[in-house]
Each structure stands twice: as C-alpha cells, then as structure tokens.
C-alpha cells in the first residue's frame, strides 16, 4: 500500500496563509476594512430587493421601471464596493487588483462587472427589450452570487487562520 511519505512529490504543498502577519496588521488597521464590512451586506440587501423585483417583472410583466431602477442601483453599489475594494487591496497587499490571496476572486469580479456594465449599456442604448434586460440582470446576478460565495469562503478562511497564519482547530 502506498503512503504519501513514499511519494513526497505527491503531497500537497503547504498553502500560503491568506495574510502574512504584516498584511493582517494593515488589514486590521485600515478604515477600508470597515467600509467593506458595511458595504458587503448593504450590497447583498440591494441585490435581494432587486432580484425580487426582476423576478416579479419576468413572472407578471409588472414593475418594469422598478426592476430597471433597482438593477441600476445594484450596479452602482457594485461599482462602489469594487472601487473601495481596490483601495483596500492596495492598502493591505500593495496592489489594486489581483493580489495572490484574492486573485481568482478578482478575476471573477471582472465578469461580474462586465455583465452589470453590459446591462447599463443595453439599458441606455435600447439594445435589449425589457425582458432581455431582465434576463441579462439575472445572468449578472448569478455571477454576483458566485463571486460573493468566493469572498465569504475567503472570509471564513481568514477567521480560521490565527495570527500566525495557521488554521485554528476548534474542539
């Protein structure tokens, strides 16, 4: 029977902690951490309201204006959290985007931004009818949910990692 000790090249390398001790200090000292902590649930609440309005419009044909306005507001909150998130990333990691600790979250965020921006372009140019806009909003929202899940996972990992970067085991 083979064991990992027999083939050390097959062992998983020790993963880099989410934050170095210096990054953790910068994160904890930054006002932008608080800003992100406030904006994330606000954006999620805006998302839930807008999702309900968009689904109502698709189901009944009523509330087109409310649904459209809600998607615009959701997009503006997304832009706000992305801009402040870039500032946070610069303060903590020394770069505005694609820090190794959040690389894939940032990559997926670009898709989220692209779909939300496509909604605004289609809305203001008349490129899509109301139903097409609603479906585009749902596509944007689906990517937002995945991206939010990525960040929630990272938040959980950060909480499990102690100040040393090791994963804390709870008994």
Q: Can you summarize this structure?
A:
The protein has 171 residues and is mostly helical. Helices cover 72% and strands 0% of the residues. α2 runs antiparallel to α5, α3 packs antiparallel against α4 and α4 runs antiparallel to α5.
Give an account of the 3D structure.
The chain has 171 residues and is mainly α. Helix content is 72%, strand content 0%. The protein has 5 helices and no strands. α2 (31-60) runs antiparallel to α3.
Beta-strand share of residues: under 5%
Instruction: Give a short account of the largest sheet.
Output: none
Q: Helix and strand string, N-terminal first?
A: HHHHH
Care to count the β-strands?
Answer: 0
Structural class: mainly alpha
- Report Rg: 20 Å
Topology readout:
Blueprint: H1 21-29, H2 31-60, H3 64-93, H4 103-125, H5 130-160
Characteristics:
disordered C terminus; single chain; mainly alpha; 171 residues; elongated; 5 helices
